[in-house]
Amino acid sequence: MRSAALSAACAAALTLVLAGCGTGGYTSGGSQGAGKQLFTKACGGCHTLTDAGTAGTIGPNLDDAFAQARAVGMTSETFTQVVHDQIWYPITTTSTGAPGMPKIDTTLPLCADAKPGSFCVEDQGAASDDIAAYVGAVAGTGKSAEKPTSGKAIFQTVGCAGCHTLADAGTTGTVGPNLDDAKPSKERVIDRVTNGKGAMPSFSSSLDPQQIQAVADYVSSAAGR
Ligand code: HEC
Ligand code: HEC
Q1: What stretches of the chain adopt beta strand conformation (E)?
Q2: Whole domain around residue 159: which residue ranges?
Q3: pLDDT tens per residue, range 145-180
């Protein structure tokens, strides 16, 4: 449900960007350094983001939320727009009735209104630009995290999980074939991951050859177990 929400948001953001629509305040000049500090204070309590060292679990893990979209070719610019829109126009009540994300006056309270000594910002526009530039650049890149080398970790983190069911990895995606049923050979996994096919993207630019070998070894031996 969360990745569906993200895809919808991405599609909306893409449309905005492609249409050159400036009303959302498309951001390109935010400062990532300032954004990191602000993110840690304003967002990290609810969101996990490896680069910022935050581990909140009330909202979605932002590395997971963006890794899959990044793997299929979405750019940092698009994510920056998505994050910016999410800060300004959060869905405050979700379809499940669970509390969504608070409004900007709660996440980035203005100093003019805040209690003395509590976290606040002078300018919500600048603060949201900075945070969006920062999160857009780092979320889902795995830049600060160790690059996964075990086949299972690769499978679970680079996007395969969102599309494929594989019991050993604990994944339940249904966009692509159930790999426990397909029981692909190692050669077949290497071919699909390298070249993609149909709705499956190629991973040849996001995974190095050792990682492709590792994930192929893993899938061909774990599938159907
Ligand atoms: C009180 C907790 C809370 C705070 C603080 C918070 N968020 Fe969220 N955030 C959430 C929840 C809950 C959701 C999921 C809402 C939904 O499902 O629509 C969410 C969703 C998101 C999403 C969409 C992720 C996806 O998978 O679609 C982004 C991006 C995001 N938040 C960024 C931020 C940023 C940036 C900040 C800081 C300015 C922030 N959040 C502060 C709780 C929070
Ligand atoms: C965006 C969704 C998506 C992602 C991400 C994805 N796949 Fe796929 N995958 C598919 C679809 C759809 C097919 C069926 C393609 C076809 O044959 O037309 C497929 C086919 C395959 C097959 C062939 C299965 C068979 O029928 O023998 C393998 C193996 C596979 N994927 C492994 C992976 C691995 C490993 C990853 C991660 C590195 C991955 N996929 C990421 C959607 C995805």
Answers
A1: 48-49, 54-55, 165-166, 171-172
A2: 151-222
A3: 456 789 998 898 778 888 899 999 998 889 899 999
Ligand (nearest to CA of 70): 2
Closest approach atom of ligand 2 to CA 198: 18
Does 169 sit in the ligand 2 pocket, CB within 6 Å? no
Instruction: State which amino acid sits at residue 48.
Output: T
CB of 38 within 6 A of ligand 1: the answer is: no
Residue 165's domain is classified under what CATH number? Answer: 1.10.760.10
Measured from the Cα of 139, ligand 1's closest atom is 29
Last residue of a domain, one of 89, 111, 138: 138
Q: Spell out the residues 6+ positions from residue 134 whose beta carbon is closer than 8 angstroms to its own.
A: 30, 31, 32, 33, 34, 35, 36, 38, 39
Q: Please tell me the total number of residues recorded for the chain in this structure.
A: 225
Cα of 194 from ligand 1 centre, angstroms: 33
pTM: predicted TM-score of the whole model, two decimal places: 0.54
